[in-house]
Specification:
- The protein has 20 helices and seven strands.
- By secondary structure, it is of the alpha+beta class.
- It has a five-stranded mixed sheet, covered by helices on one side. It has a two-stranded antiparallel ribbon with strand order 1-3.
- Helix 10 runs antiparallel to helix 11 and helix 10 runs parallel beside helix 12.
- The protein is flat, with a radius of gyration of 38 Å.
Length: 660
C-alpha cells in the first residue's frame, strides 16, 4: 500500500494538519487487519491505523506503529520498518517530543537511502523539516522543505506539493516574514480549491488568521479563525480546532475583551489536555495564567501557572535539547559524507575525461607532425600572405583609433553642449537679478529718504540671495552632470514635491522666455495637497523636472511654428497619491504626470528615447543625454519608474512614480 504523506505543520503552532480518518475508514482497516494473513500487508495496515488515530488519540497511534515495527523486524521487512519508524516519529512529534521525532525521521531517511529507495523520499525531508521547525532551526527546516517540494513536483504529486507550500508559508510565518508566508499560503489555498481537500481547508484558513494577527489586523484574523472552525469540526481535526480557539482568544485579548478571551482559551486548553497535545497545552495554560492576572483573579492564574510549569518540565528538559543537537550534528556529518562521495565520484569522472581528451590531443599531435613535412612547401607563400595581412591589419587599427578618437571628441562636444543647456536657466536668473541690482544701486544713490534707502537695500539683499541660490544651482547642475557616470545622486531629505514641481515649471518657462522673446505657451498645475513631503534628492529630482518641462515647452514651440492660428500650446503637471502595481507590501507612491500637446514622439523611436546620446533635435540643439540622466535618477537613484505615452501629432505624457 502506498505511503501517505503526513503534514507536519499547524497554523500558529505549525504542527500537524492531518485529520483523523472517518470512523468507517478506521473500522474498515481493523477488519482488514483481522482477516489479513500476509505479514507484509499487516505491517502496512498497522501503519495506516497509526495515522488514522494520530490527531484524536496519539497513544493509540503509537501502539499501532510499534506493533507494525515489531512485526516488520521479525520478518526482516526493511521497507515496513522504515514506514513504521516514520509513523512513530509522527506520534512523538505530535506530543511535543521533538528529539525522539527527529531521531525517528533521520532513521527513516537513512533506511530509505541504504535501500536506494527514492520513492516518496520527500516524506523524510518533510518530516525532518517539521522537527527542525519546532526547534526553531528555520534554516535547516527550509532546506529540507525545498528538497521535499522539488521531489514532489518531480513526481507531479499535487497533494504533496499542497502540504509543502502550506508548510513553507507556516515556517516563514514563524520567521515573521509575512510577505513570504502569504505568498506560499496563497499558492497552497489554490491547491486546496483545486483538489477540494477537506482535511486541509481548515488548516489553511487558520494560518491566514495567524498571518493577519501578526499584521495586527484582528478583524480579518478573527474572520479566518471562525471560518476554519466548521471545517476542522467536520473532519475532527482537533489540533486545527485547538489553534482556531486559541487564535480567537488572542484576538479578544488584544481587544481587551477578557471574558471572551478566557472562554476561547479554555476551549483550546480543554482540547489540548484531552488529546493530549503537550505544546499546545503549555501555550494555552500560560496564556490563561496571564489573562487571569490581568483580571486580578490570582487563584485561577496560579492554578494555570502550576499546570504550565509541570508541562514545561516534561517537554523542554535539558537532556532533550542536548539530544536534538547531537542528532543534528550526526545528520550533518552524514550529509557531508554523502557530499564527499559525490565529489569523489565527479572527480573520477573529470579524471577520466581528462585522460580521454589527452589521448585525443596526442593522436591529433601525431597526425599534425606527419603532415608537417607536407606543409613546409606552403610556408613561404603563407609568410608572404601573412606580411600582407599584418600590413592591412596595422592600417585598420590606425583607422579604428582615429574613428574612436573622433567619436570621443563628438561625444565630448555633445556633453559640453548638454551642460551649457542645463545651466542656461540658472545663469539667466543670475544675470537678470544682477541687472536689477545695478538699477537698484543706482536708484539708491539718487535717493535721499533713509526709509526708501533701507527698502532698496533690503531688495538688493534679497536679489543677492537669489543670485547666490541660482549660482549654487548652476554649480550643482555641473557637478550632477559629472556624477552621472558614477551613479551618485547625493543625500535624500524630506521635500515638498508640489512646491518643487511648481518652482521648476516656472523656472523652465521663464528661462525659455529669456532665451527666445518670441516663445510663448500656457502652463497649468494640478497638485494633490495631501501628498506632503517625500524623501528625495531635491537637486536630482529638480533636474528631472526641469529636463521634462524644457522638452515639453520645446515640443509645443516646434508645433506652434507649423500649426494654424487655432493651436494653443500648453504644458501641464499633475501630482497625486498612487501605488506601484507590481510591488507587494511597499507599493505606496507619488505620481507625477507631465503632459504637453506638442508633436508627440513617433512610435518607432519611443523605446529609444531613454538611451544615452539619442536625440530627435537638430544637430547642436541637443546632446541626447537629458532623458538618459532622467531615467537613471528615477530608476537607480530613487527606486522609481518612468514611462512615456505619446501619440504622434497630438502630444506626449511622461509618468513618474516615486516611492514614499
Amino acid at each position: 500500500m502506498r505511503c501517505i504523506k503526513f503534514l507536519l505543520f499547524i497554523t500558529a503552532l505549525n504542527c500537524c494538519a492531518y485529520a483523523k480518518a472517518q470512523s468507517t475508514e478506521t473500522d474498515s482497516l481493523k477488519k482488514a487487519l483481522a482477516f489479513e494473513i500476509k505479514d507484509e500487508k499487516r505491517v502496512f495496515i498497522l501503519e495506516n491505523l497509526s495515522y488514522t488515530y494520530l490527531s484524536s488519540s496519539p497513544d493509540t497511534a503509537l501502539q499501532y506503529a510499534m506493533q507494525g515495527l515489531q512485526l516488520a523486524q521479525n520478518i526482516k521487512f526493511l521497507k515496513g520498518e522504515a514506514i513504521c519508524i516514520n509513523a512513530i516519529g509522527n506520534v512523538y512529534f505530535h506530543i511535543g517530543d521533538n528529539a525522539k521525532a527527529l531521531e525517528m525521521y533521520l532513521r527513516y531517511l537513512e533506511i530509505k537511502e541504504s535501500m536506494k529507495d527514492f520513492n516518496n523520499l520527500s516524506i523524510a525531508y518533510f518530516n525532518i523539516a517539521g522537527a527542525y521547525t519546532e526547534e526553531q532551526d528555520y534554516d535547516h527546516a527550509l532546506y529540507y522543505l525545498f528538497k521535499a517540494k522539488k521531489e514532489d513536483e518531480k513526481a507531479k504529486d499535487s497533494a504533496a506539493v499542497l502540504y509543502d507550500l502550506y508548510s513553507l508559508g507556516s515556517t516563514y510565518l514563524r520567521m515573521q516574514k509575512t510577505d513570504s508566508a502569504l505568498q506560499y499560503l496563497n499558492q497552497s489555498y489554490q491547491f486546496v480549491q483545486k483538489l477540494d481537500d477537506k482535511n486541509m481547508i481548515g488548516a489553511v484558513l487558520n494560518t491566514y488568521g495567524e498571518i493577519y494577527l501578526a499584521l495586527y489586523d484582528s478583524v480579518k484574523a478573527a474572520a479566518y479563525y471562525k471560518s476554519s472552525i466548521p471545517h476542522a469540526e467536520e473532519v475532527e481535526d482537533y489540533e486545527v480546532l485547538n489553534a482556531d480557539y486559541f487564535g480567537l482568544a488572542k484576538v479578544y485579548k488584544e481587544k481587551r475583551m477578557f471574558d471572551s478571551a478566557v472562554y476561547y482559551a479554555r476551549k483550546a486548553f480543554s482540547i489540548a489536555e484531552e488529546a493530549p497535545f503537550f505544546k499546545q497545552a503549555l501555550e494555552t495554560s500560560m496564556f490563561l495564567s496571564d489573562l487571569f492576572k490581568m483580571k486580578n483573579k490570582y487563584d485561577s492564574a496560579f492554578h494555570y501557572q502550576e499546570i504550565s510549569i509541570e508541562i514545561k518540565d516534561s517537554l523542554f528538559n535539558i537532556e532533550q535539547s542536548r539530544k536534538v543537537q547531537e542528532l543534528k550534528f550526526q545528520e550533518q556529518q552524514r550529509q557531508q559524507s554523502i557530499e564527499t562521495e559525490k565529489i569523489k565520484y565527479h572527480n573520477n569522472i573529470k579524471l577520466f575525461v581528462a585522460i580521454f581528451i589527452s589521448a585525443i590531443i596526442l593522436i591529433i599531435a601525431v597526425v599534425l607532425w606527419r603532415s608537417n613535412k607536407q606543409n613546409k612547401k606552403a610556408n613561404l607563400l603563407l609568410t608572404v600572405q601573412k606580411a600582407k595581412v599584418e600590413s592591412t591589419l596595422s592600417e585598420l587599427k590606425s583607422t579604428q583609433a582615429q574613428l574612436i578618437q573622433s567619436e570621443k571628441m563628438a561625444s565630448l562636444g555633445e556633453l559640453t553642449a548638454g551642460i551649457a543647456h542645463e545651466i542656461q536657466n540658472p545663469l539667466n536668473f543670475v544675470n537678470n537679478f544682477s541687472e536689477v541690482n545695478n538699477e537698484l544701486v543706482e536708484e539708491m544713490n539718487n535717493e535721499n529718504d533713509i526709509t526708501e534707502i533701507k527698502i532698496i537695500a533690503n531688495d538688493i539683499k534679497q536679489n543677492n540671495e537669489k543670485i547666490i541660490f541660482h549660482g549654487k544651482r548652476a554649480d550643482a547642475i555641473v557637478k550632477g552632470m559629472l556624477q552621472h557616470s558614477r551613479k551618485n545622486t547625493g543625500q535624500k531629505e524630506p521635500v515638498d514635491i508640489n512646491a518643487l514641481c511648481d518652482e521648476y515649471l516656472r523656472l523652465s518657462y521663464h528661462g525659455l522666455r529669456a532665451k527666445d522673446k518670441n516663445f510663448n505657451a500656457d502652463f497649468k498645475t494640478e497638485f494633490d495637497a495631501t501628498i506632503g513631503k517625500i524623501n528625495i534628492v531635491q537637486q536630482d529630482i529638480g533636474r528631472v523636472l526641469l529636463n521634462l518641462f524644457n522638452n515639453s515647452f520645446y515640443a509645443v514651440n516646434e508645433k506652434k511654428k507649423t500649426a494654424d492660428g487655432s493651436y494653443k500650446p500648453i504644458v501641464s503637471v499633475v501630482t497625486k497619491n498612487s501605488f506601484f502595481p507590481d510591488r507587494k507590501g511597499h507599493d505606496d507612491a507619488v505620481e507625477i504626470i507631465v503632459t504637453d500637446n506638442g508633436n508627440g514622439i513617433p512610435q518607432n523611436i519611443v523605446d529609444k528615447i531613454f538611451q544615452p546620446f539619442f536625440t530627435t533635435k537638430p544637430t547642436g540643439s541637443g546632446t541626447g543625454l537629458g532623458l538618459s540622466i532622467v531615467y537613471d535618477i528615477i530608476t537607480k537613484g530613487h527606486n522609481g519608474t518612468i514611462k512615456v505615452n505619446s501619440i504622434e501629432n497630438e502630444g506626449s505624457e511622461f509618468i513618474i512614480l516615486l516611492p514614499f
